[in-house]
Write a structure and sequence with these properties.
Distance between the termini: 61 Å
Shape: extended
Helix content: 25-40%
Number of domains: 4
Strand content: 5-15%
Number of strands: 17
Number of helices: 21
Largest sheet: 7 strands, antiparallel
């Protein structure tokens, strides 16, 4: 190491070394100019002619300045040493011997043919000559590219063109527009996903972010707002291009955005926020409630509310309203028209429920099921049947089928194992002759043990109730006459439930969601990037979510992200019935007031189960999501 030219084993301060190198560089530059003016040339291999030589990497051999395109003289790096000089992949290919000659070595140990070996020896002999720095770096990059291309051919031995086309596409596409799947090494570009799963839960807030501004979504003109409201009332929908160059000046886009924000609500009290209603006592506390102690006023409110609910169900049955929500202070009900979510009949989902409510529905003659309990029972039966073989397997399956049929209209299949019969349970005590000495549990204890399973479901997602077909009309009458539907005490006392629908109905009031756009800066690696955000708040219906995302796709040029905030009690609205069949294509919903793409999405069965969407990302006009 000490024999290398220009290498000093002794330690010096960096400031002293830099000062010494500046003086040497100035002196070498002046001598070089004088020698070039006299027409003298220096030998590139001798260390004494330092005026005509440049040391690009130190320690290392001296290269001639005649081969350098730059006019200045590069100084030696005072912090370089022999070890870290050879650590770089590009520099690792070049190794210097004691005489200052350069030799090129191959870092990829795979077998080559004799012709390849001859070419390697020839290239090594050529590389034994001292080359300029630019040529050395170009040669190193060429060899690395050969290594990478060889690895690609080994990975994609059947068809190399697929990988090459993907690499060229990624090079043409900016980094911020590439999807995670497409940027993964050794993977073929995934298919474009143009839709996300149907989500039937209610959202309280949406937060969209995009590198492009949302200035087109704020401060609508009076004419644009009027056009959007008129189109909503007349169920007219404008056709937008797939890509919009100037979104701020597009009148059709701004009017369509105002149209997507409209929803209908009953009752409407300007000083009260009537959504959400579950666990919302704080928003009602301290507000004026003149109906709280006025029985006549409460009856008037309930009478108007009953008329609005009957009107909504009539529109739903005629397929003029696709769906609507009933939000009470203790549960939420979703009514869907026939043909939505893969069901051929009208369906109603009620969540959460209690044992008292389910018993009252049974007494009213309403047949219902518990989808999540049925799904759990089905998976348990499949596991039991798979663990047995032969006749034992068949006997166990028949037994489980018999139990399921016996309790198909009940509320929990687990109650089969908890049927306590006083005479049957203690008959063995009589056989032993000790029935008089042991204290029997009383009837109240036996009843509590019977109802333990059903009570444990209360206020849980598993307590969701599903009603289908003509029993939904019976459920409407039950809700109108149910006295426990309205709170008898508290801040919501005497206030009817909130009705929400995407189309107008009798007694409804038109409302619009609140939209606000803000430009913020977010940290990306070590720098800050300008990001625009759009916040939408209010009771966001499934059709409104799809309409807004459909407008953002052309307006933001296929690049945006969305954070969805779900009303927790409605997250289980995406569950499907075990008996549900996909037979919705025969049902005509063209007159329901929604645009055709939204109707097509709502007709597909939801695949989210008892979860809801939390995030939606669009990159290169392709959707990805998280639930």
């Amino acid at each position: 190491m000490s024999q290398q030219a220009g290498y000093s084993p002794s330690f010096k301060r960096p400031a002293d070394i830099l000062r010494m190198r500046r003086k040497r560089a100035r002196s070498e530059a002046s001598v070089g100019r004088s020698s070039s003016g006299q027409g003298s040339t220096a030998s590139p291999g001798r260390g004494g002619s330092s005026s005509g030589c440049v040391r690009p990497f130190s320690p290392g051999p001296l290269f001639s300045t005649q081969s350098r395109s730059a006019g200045g003289v590069k100084r030696r790096n005072p912090f370089a040493n022999i070890e870290n000089t050879y650590n770089s992949p590009k520099k690792r290919l070049v190794i210097y011997n004691d005489e200052g000659d350069a030799a090129v070595l191959d870092s990829v140990p795979f077998k080559k043919s004799p012709e390849k070996m001859e070419e390697k020896e020839t290239s090594a002999k050529k590389e034994m000559q001292v080359l300029p720095l630019s040529e050395m770096l170009a040669e190193a990059e060429r060899q690395e590219n050969q290594v990478i291309s060889s690895k690609k051919r080994l990975t994609f031995s059947e068809d190399d063109s697929l990988f090459d086309e993907e690499e060229e596409e990624q090079e043409r596409t900016p980094l911020h527009k590439q999807s995670p799947q497409a940027s993964a090494p050794g993977s073929i570009a995934p298919p474009v996903c143009t839709e996300y799963p149907t989500d039937w839960s209610l959202k309280t807030r949406l937060l969209f972010t995009s590198p492009l501004p949302f200035s087109w979504a704020e401060h609508p003109k009076a004419q644009e707002e009027a056009k959007g409201l008129t189109q909503h009332c007349r169920a007219q929908h404008s056709t937008l291009p797939l890509r919009i160059q100037d979104a701020k000046s597009c009148t059709e886009l701004r009017a369509a955005f105002q149209q997507s924000l409209v929803y209908w609500q009953h009752p409407s009290l300007p000083w009260l926020s009537l959504f959400p209603r579950i666990n919302a006592e704080k928003s009602f506390t301290g507000k004026s409630a003149p109906w709280a102690h006025d029985t006549a006023l409460q009856q008037s409110l309930m009478s108007e509310w009953s008329v609005s609910l009957s009107s909504l169900y009539s529109l739903l049955k005629a397929k003029l309203c696709p769906y609507f929500y009933l939000c009470s202070y203790q549960f939420t009900v979703l009514f869907r028209a026939a043909g939505l979510n893969g069901s051929s009949s009208i369906t109603a989902l009620l969540s959460p429920s209690t044992r008292g409510l389910r018993e009252a529905m049974k007494a009213a003659g309403i047949e219902f099921t518990l989808p999540l309990v049925e799904e759990r029972r089905k998976s348990r039966d499949q596991h039991t049947s798979a663990s047995h073989q032969g006749g034992e397997d068949k006997e166990e399956t028949d037994s489980s089928e018999w139990k399921r049929s016996e309790n198909s209209q009940g509320e929990d299949g687990d109650d089969d194992n908890n049927d306590y019969d006083e005479d049957g349970e203690f008959s063995w005590l009589k056989e032993m002759g000790v029935h008089d000495k042991i204290k029997k549990p009383d009837s109240i204890t036996i009843q509590l043990r019977k109802e333990h399973k059903s009570v444990s479901l209360d206020h849980k997602p598993e307590s969701q109730v599903r009603v289908e077909g003509p029993h939904t009309f019976t459920l409407i009458n039950f809700l109108i006459n149910c006295k426990s539907l309205v709170a008898a005490a508290g801040s919501q006392a005497g206030l009817p439930p909130t009705l929400l629908a995407p189309t107008p109905f009798r007694g409804a009031t038109m409302h619009t969601l609140k939209a606000r756009s803000v430009n913020v800066k977010t940290q990306v690696r070590s720098a800050f990037q300008d990001v625009s955000s759009l916040e939408v708040s209010g009771p966001i219906l499934p059709s409104a979510l799809h309409a807004i995302t459909g407008l953002l796709r052309p307006a933001q040029r296929g690049s945006f992200s969305a954070a969805l905030y779900t009303h927790a009690p409605t997250a289980v609205m995406n569950t499907r019935s075990v008996k549900e069949q996909v037979d919705s294509n025969s049902v005509d919903l063209s007159a329901c007031g929604l645009q055709p793409p939204t109707v097509q999405q709502l007709q597909r069965p939801s695949t989210l189960g008892k979860t809801a969407l939390r995030q939606i990302h669009m990159t290169n006009y392709s959707y990805t999501w998280k639930n």
